[in-house]
Specification:
The protein is mostly beta strands. The chain is built from one helix and 13 strands; from the N terminus they run E-E-E-E-E-E-E-E-E-E-E-E-E-H. The protein is globular.
């Protein structure tokens, strides 16, 4: 297991729950936690509504290890690498709300390396609304292209762009390096 410090974690014992929270995390220039929200271990059918999510060093929300049919709605305030990471065979994840900042690497990272599951991440739906004047950057690795809700965004794809000829090659190289601890 990872040594990440997560402020709120949801596992399979949270299946089917609807959770309403106020402010998660705090506004700071140097968060001392990794992820504000972690949803993992096959958690299914979780709906989380938060007034605001302030991100940690990595994410506002990190979904992994076959979480499915989960929704997070919030005002997003990334303070680290990503607004959200969705990986490890997650399916049918919906992120929605206004975005008030951007990740240092990308905003939404789909299908990055997971030591818990190498299954493809599928069915992601993004209904995010940039309030910064900058587009929301989406990286698609071991994942299918997300669905963008009409009128939301704007969105741009980061390298490797999912519909380019080199995408599959770039993903295989990334997986190889990560599986050997080289990236």
């Amino acid at each position: 297991m990872s040594a990440d410090k997560n402020l709120f974690s949801y596992y399979e014992d949270s299946n089917g729950q609807t959770i309403t929270k106020g402010e998660l995390g705090t506004a700071t220039s140097s968060p001392d936690w990794s992820d504000t929200v972690k949803i993992t271990s096959g958690c299914t059918g979780l709906s989380l509504y938060a007034a605001r999510i302030y991100g940690g060093k990595e994410d506002c929300a990190d979904l992994n290890n076959k979480a499915s049919n989960c929704t997070i709605t919030a005002k997003w305030h990334p303070q680290g690498k990503y607004l959200a990471t969705i990986k490890g065979g997650c399916h049918a994840i919906l992120l929605s709300g206004d975005v008030f900042g951007h990740g240092t690497e990308v905003d939404v990272d789909l299908g990055n390396w997971s030591d818990q599951s190498q299954n493809v991440t599928t069915g992601t739906i993004l209904s995010l609304w940039s309030q910064t004047g900058k587009p929301i950057r989406v990286r698609v690795l071991n994942a299918t292209v997300p669905t963008f809700v009409a009128g939301s965004g704007p969105y741009v794809f980061a390298f490797p762009e999912p519909n380019k000829w080199y995408h599959g090659i770039a993903v295989k190289i990334q997986q190889f390096l990560c599986s050997r601890g080289l990236l």
